[in-house]
Design a protein that fits this description.
Shape: globular
Mean pLDDT: 92
Strand content: 5-15%
Structural class: alpha/beta
Low-confidence stretches: 360-364
Order of helices and strands: HEEEHHEHEHHEHEHEEEHHHEEEH
Distance between the termini: 44 Å
């Protein structure tokens, strides 16, 4: 580990070479004072000087930086074989079988790819082939990936670029804290469903036909929004009546991050089953692997085109070995239970903090040894997405530092 953590260049040289060779739109965290990270362990990252940072920002490294079980699985499989999924191999079918056990029974056909963007792009293709429709409904501030097809269905991005395409329709974000219908509304789920119905009617009035409603199960860049219970059930009925499919984007939220369930869409209840689910970021603990899962009917419609779907790296033996190891660690180390316990504790700490500090704004914690980001339309939502091994002590440490910062602001 120590040898691998050695730096080839000093920090200034690394920054200079980055400016010289890496596209300027590929931005750094903390660009005015970037951090050079050389290694990670568990929920911590270390810079070139050995300073430790508590990682509250890297939801990709799901079970912790440098996890030995994941590293061993990758190393052992790389020594034996890595090839594409056109050859029979146990890893891909074992992985699909394990994943299927976490999902509703009808979601049983898997397509393995390499990133959340690839997964959502394929989901869009599946929906359009099955429905023979083109149009897509998304929520305000949605983000579904960086491919051209996904920029087009991501208001978070397209509002800064070429604008909204005629085949894209944007429904109000079901935000019961700052949205149109809030917690004091008698039925916010129904109210937001009526807004979705209005969007569908407006599309139909223009002769448009709906292929899919793409929805993050817990909208992320929109501000970590918890959808009101019952909203997605109502949305599914409306979308199905319009001839479309429901695509649940679990790229940010899947694999037990919410604790209580393995997938965030399951918060809506057992009677809600999407037509397609996409997953990505946490699957490989930092290794690029993602997936689309759907029903037999939708997969058969896609196959009936006669055009083969082949992905050079998707579902290769190494990626699947890593994916299986991640599932093992989640189960063996009780990481879902840990997420529930620590999440509850963190919520309690922040609830107490809210009483002390009525206004919480843009907080920078890098100087305190904490790496944390903000999000939401106003850039005013602290976004916690640490590795799942984040502990009670870590939660207390973060809140104490935020308290100290806010207390200092109040004094000034």
């Amino acid at each position: 580990m120590a040898n691998m953590a050695k730096s080839l260049y000093n920090k200034e040289e690394t920054l200079s070479l980055r400016h010289k060779h890496i596209g300027p739109s590929c931005r750094l965290f903390f660009p005015d004072e970037p951090i050079k990270i050389v290694r990670g362990e568990g929920q911590y990252m270390y810079d070139e000087n050995g300073r430790r940072y508590l990682d509250c920002i890297t939801n990709v490294v799901h079970v912790g930086h440098g996890h030995p079980v994941v590293a061993k699985a990758a190393f052992q499989q790389l020594q034996v074989l890595n090839t594409n999924a056109r050859f029979l191999h146990d890893n891909i079918v074992q992985y699909a079988t394990r994943l299927s056990s976490t999902l509703p029974e009808k979601l049983c056909i898997f397509y393995f790819v390499n990133s959340g963007s690839e997964a959502n792009d394929l989901a869009l293709r599946l929906a359009r082939h099955y429905t023979q429709h083109e149009d897509v409904i998304v929520l305000e501030e949605a983000y579904h990936g960086h491919l051209s097809s996904l920029i087009d269905i991501s208001p978070y991005k397209f509002k800064h670029l070429g604008g909204q395409k005629e085949w894209v329709h944007v429904a109000p974000l079901p935000d019961t804290y700052r949205g149109r219908y809030r917690e004091d509304h008698e039925d916010p789920a129904q109210a937001y469903a009526e807004e979705l119905k209005r969007v569908i009617s407006e599309a139909h009035s223009k002769g448009r036909k709906i292929a899919a409603f793409f929805v993050e199960s817990l909208p992320s860049v929109a501000g970590q929004i918890i959808l009101p219970p019952g909203y997605l059930q109502r949305a599914r009925q409306l979308i199905h009546e319009a001839g479309g499919l429901i695509v649940a984007d679990e790229v940010h939220t899947g694999f037990g991050r919410i604790g209580k369930h393995f997938w965030a869409f399951q918060l809506q209840g057992k009677d809600f089953v999407p037509d397609i689910v996409t997953m990505g970021k946490p699957m490989g603990n930092g290794h690029p692997i993602s997936c689309v899962v759907t029903t037999k009917e939708i997969a058969e419609a896609f196959t009936s085109t006669g055009v083969e779907y082949f992905n050079t790296f998707g579902g290769n033996p190494v990626s699947c070995a890593i994916g299986l190891a991640v599932l093992d660690v989640i189960e063996q180390e009780g990481l879902r239970e840990n997420a529930t316990k620590v999440g509850k504790y963190l919520t309690e700490l922040f609830t107490e903090l809210k009483k002390k500090h009525p206004i919480i704004g843009d907080i920078r914690l890098k100087r305190e040894g904490i790496i944390l980001s903000k999000d939401g339309p106003g850039g005013n939502v602290l976004k916690f997405k640490p590795p799942m091994c984040f502990s009670m002590d870590d939660a207390k440490f973060v809140v104490e530092k935020i308290d100290a910062i806010l207390t200092g602001w109040n004094k000034n």
